[in-house]
Model the fold of this input.
Amino acid sequence: MKKLLILMLAAASVCCKPKEIDLTGTWTQPVPGQAGGWSQGMQLNADGTASSVNMYTLVLESWKREGDKLILTGKSVGNGINIAFTDTLTIDRKSTDDSLFLRQGTNVQAFGRLRR
Done:
């Protein structure tokens, strides 16, 4: 009985592990407060480089994934001052191949994959 319970627990842990999605590609979301279909987001390249989509004062430079964390680095270039940053975001479990939910504290940002 004990061996059966251990086997069942091992099987449950394997089947319940969320699928790791491929983050490479372009992820966008509507620009808050803007009508007319404007979007913003990020391009995550396979070589670890990144770029902003329609966010001209936020320059994304690189990205990496560590488990359920997405780490973005870049600089804010508003008002003539360059400020380097590193943001660590949690990839929410409800993310899929086409929808990416990123959490930072209680803030959740939703992105859709741009298909070309």
User: Anything to note?
Assistant: The beta strands are 25-30, 39-44, 50-53, 58-66, 69-76, 83-91, 99-104, 107-113. The CA atoms of residues 22 and 97 lie 7 Å apart. The radius of gyration is 18 Å.
